[in-house]
Amino acid sequence: MSVAWSGVFPALMTEFKEDGRLDLEGTQRHIKSCLDAGITGLIMLGTLGENSSLRAAEKAMVLAAAVEACEGRIPVLSGVAEYTTELAIEHAAQAKRVGCEGLMVLPSMVYQQDQREGRAHFESIAGSTDLPIMIYNNPVSYKLDMLPESFAALSGIKNIVAVKESSNDSRRLTDMINTCGERYLMFCGVDDLVLENLMFGAVGWVSGLVNSFPREAVALFTHAEAGQLDEALALYRWFMPLLHLDVDVKLVQYIKLCNQMTGEGAEWVRRPRLTLQGEERAKVVDVVQTALDSRPNL
After folding, report:
1. pTM beyond cutoff 0.90
2. CA pair distance 89, 93, nearest whole angstrom
3. CA-to-CA distance for 158 and 163, rounded, in angstroms?
4. Residue 272 domain flag
């Protein structure tokens, strides 16, 4: 299976109202802002989309709203992050029904799988759908590190087409390419490693901070892709304090507050997450305000 996925794919926030209800209009406004900035794909219901905080019916509503907002201009992928393989298969089918063009599949939640179980999970989901799949490898958050050898073992499954690599080790991209060649489209999944990953062979970036600074994220990727390294490095250095927000355990709250400060969304989250307070809030506000005060003129 061949897909042309590349460029900047926001891991988009799911917007809520202050009382926790879905804000589908707010989500669509945010999508359109990112589209105007030049994103080339969209991932809904990932970690930043608060997948595990939504009921199945709500997930379908969010995905349908995203498909409607994009109007076929870019591919819409759904995150698949369920407690069991069977529930993941059900969600994959639902995502196709509402018009998604691909899936970003995570390991099953809660239970920590080994390599064999992880491969079986991904194989089963891929076998249940004809949608193209990006596997999300994030051992830091989800405790399963799919090694290059495991991806080599999965290489015969045609609709597994891409990998979002978030092992927090820039060497992994080279190891993947050395082991699997060009079999998979490699995406950077760690915001504060993006320039390094693009230099080492990534063709795309699943980004958190693109939510708040979509034009700057697209410009950074564009400069790097064009080999304009001086321009890319200057923008990367300005961006880096913001990009560090993506790798904290409270990345959802951090980036939602950032969205609120940049006019891209609201800070409201669902429990058990709580909005930021006190010194923690002040720290994030300071990082974002410093960036806004020195924001490049693109």
Report:
1. yes
2. 6
3. 13
4. yes
